[in-house]
Amino acid sequence: MKKQDKVIITCAVTGSIHTPTMTPHLPVTPGEIAEASIGAAEAGASIIHLHARDPQDGKPTPDPDVFMQFLPRIKQSTDAVINITTGGGHGMTVQERLAAPLRARPEMCSLNMGSMNFGLYPMLDRYPDFEHAWERQHLENSRDYIFRNTFKDIEYILKELGDAHGTRFEFECYDVGHLYNLAHFLDRKLVKPPLFVQTIFGILGGIAADPENVMHMRRIADKLFGDEWCWSILAAGRNQLPFCSMAATMGANVRVGLEDSIYLGKGTLAETNAAQVAKIRRIMEDLSLQIATPEEARVMLDLKGADRVGF
């Protein structure tokens, strides 16, 4: 793992997993997403990871026009690195998922490193009624859904977005095989160090949220990438803060936000993304870890700079 002196905090402000019924605090409209992102940056997040939602009902959308309603505002109000999803949401084609990134040409995008089951349907048991009809269907459809990220898909994204526009990637690795997939692209020189590797725990269909798995993913990544990678970690739901804290003591960067967990603590909904960022920042600083600024994150990850984006 690449040696670093400071911790990068990423905040994923809305995502495509949680639905409006689950929390009244989920950012939905472009204005809410912009406000949430600015607040997270002010609280200490160096990277803001973004999805878009239909402002009428909160359904995930790949529409570039919706993204363009909040991207410029965030850029004008913060110096945070803006990271746009290429995962999109359930049922979107690869072309739909790339529509906004190709228009925006951001410094960074997420990139899932393999096809996988992505089960959200257990959350159906927690909510007897839903505010919008699409929510129940969204969760139920995940029972028979494969999140597609074939080798061809990944090659396409690396070429059309990475090579063509200088965008670098948050490589999302939900299981050990995803690390080997990334090593395959490194061997072919289709990706270049330093690799920003996001190891993800607790999604049904990926590796479980078990501390032994954190150690294992770190060990395998070290074997595959040596000192050419920067580690980051996220964990779903109640595992968010404990796993981030654990991994940070081993040199990892951290990701929080309402995409990954809607809670601030046991039984307490997070009212803002900024509250989660402030809490993990406080934990990091209590552990005597320093927080990276956006400019320091750009240097650490070899990003092209905010002056070379398309918004």
- Helix-strand pattern, N to C? EEHEEEHHEHEEHEHEHEHEHEEEHEH
CATH topology: TIM Barrel
Strand order of the largest sheet: 2-3-6-7-10-11-12-13
Major β-sheet, in short?
8 strands, parallel, barrel
Q: What is the assigned CATH homologous superfamily?
A: Aldolase class I
Query: What percent of the residues sit in helical stretches (DSSP H or I)?
Result: 25-40%
**Level-1 CATH class name:** Alpha Beta
Query: How many domain modules?
Result: 1
| Termini Cα gap | 33 Å
Overall form: globular
How many helical stretches?
11
Tell me the strand percentage band: 15-25%
Low-confidence stretches: none
Spatial extent as radius of gyration: 18 Å
Protein name: 3-keto-5-aminohexanoate cleavage protein
GO molecular function, one term: 3-keto-5-aminohexanoate cleavage activity
Cofactor: Zn(2+)
Keywords: Metal-binding, Transferase, Zinc
List keywords for this structure.
alpha/beta; globular; two-stranded parallel ribbon; eight-stranded parallel beta barrel; TIM Barrel; 311 residues
